[in-house]
Specification:
Elements (H helix, E strand, L loop, with lengths): L2 H13 L4 H6 L20 H7 L1 H9 L11 H12 L4 H11 L1
Helix pairs in contact: 1-6, 3-4
């Protein structure tokens, strides 16, 4: 599989992650549906987990990246990261940090 194809698969898997809000929609009982990373009372969604969580923002900040405000626009936020990085392997950096989170 070509490198670009692998990135697409990994990114697709990240976006299909069963976050706590998805588990709630599937009627799975959990003691809490809040984000476990930041410990604040925010529901764990894909957007929150990878972009809005204070822990995630700190991680992006270590790379010198600023998370833009764009509600429900996950892809525009990741595109902003590509613009901020300005390197040919920016997609790899974004995917690796998401995977690490």
């Amino acid at each position: 599989m070509a490198a670009k194809e692998e990135h697409k698969v990994i990114f697709w898997l990240l976006l299909r992650l069963s976050t706590r809000n998805i588990l709630r929609r599937k009627n799975m009982f959990l003691p809490s549906y809040s984000c476990i990373l930041c410990g604040e009372n925010y529901e764990e969604t894909v957007d929150h987990l990878f972009l809005e969580c204070s822990f995630a923002r700190s991680c992006w900040g270590l790379l010198g990246l600023t998370v833009i405000s764009s509600p429900n626009r996950l892809f525009s936020r990741f595109h902003s990261f590509k613009s901020q990085l300005q390197v040919s392997f920016s997609l790899e950096i974004i995917i690796l940090l998401c995977w690490s989170l």
